[in-house]
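User: Can you help me understand a structure? I only have the sequence.
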Amino acid sequence: MVWNLAAAALAYLVVPLLLPLYKKQASRNYRGESVPAGLGYSFLLPAVLVMILRSGRAVQPLLCAILLLLFAALGAVDDALSSPDQKGFRGHLRGGVLSSGALKALGGAVSALVAASLLESGWLELLVNGGLMALGANFLNLLDLRPGRAAKAFLLLSLPFHFFTPRPVPLQVLCGAVLGYLPWDLSRKAMMGDTGANPLGAALGLMAAWYLPLAVKAVLLAALAALNLLSERISFSRVIEGSRFLDFLDRLGR
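Assistant: Let's start by predicting it. Here is the structure, written out as tokens:
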């Protein structure tokens, strides 16, 4: 608990230190306001630091820390170079030229497969585990369209792992850091961007790969694939706004 609180405190304190560096990388939010984007490092770096400090000889925290940094780096490149019209799979391939988002997706897929190869599994499970991390990263990024939405989705989706798995230390630390960052996102002072959303989704995929049986993972992978494809045709924001419960959760804290 102390380590998780330390991660939360560090994340909260790091945001105002990084904000001046990201003013030139501002994006327009849903209200048309200019907000510094790509602040994912403000909670990822504290989380990684705490994971390493308390890892000892444990493999799980170190693997999670490496995965977070890889996906954060790929997301940071996309945050810095992407344009507003490069949305969805078709947008990233428009004109026959690979966008920064397409390169991020390719790099994420490779990173996910490398991470999956470090888990003890056969080739089929390796592909499923890699898919969970890659598609999980993209799915959470699709939710990062309103203040706090991606962070709250991550915290809610992480709950089963807290209650039904044996001490998922990396996830606990990461949740602490996200909670420390969340007030800045909810108050529209910062956006985590791909730098933050992609690693959070990848971390959830890693936890699923680590703890769930293959049959459950296969069903989850199919669901993630369907949701990613559906995002090309429907607006998740409209779906959320059309549900009283989801809309209540989405507006909570704003």
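Now, to help you interpret it: The first helix runs from residue 2 to 18. The first strand starts at residue 26 and ends at 28. Let me know which part you'd like to focus on.
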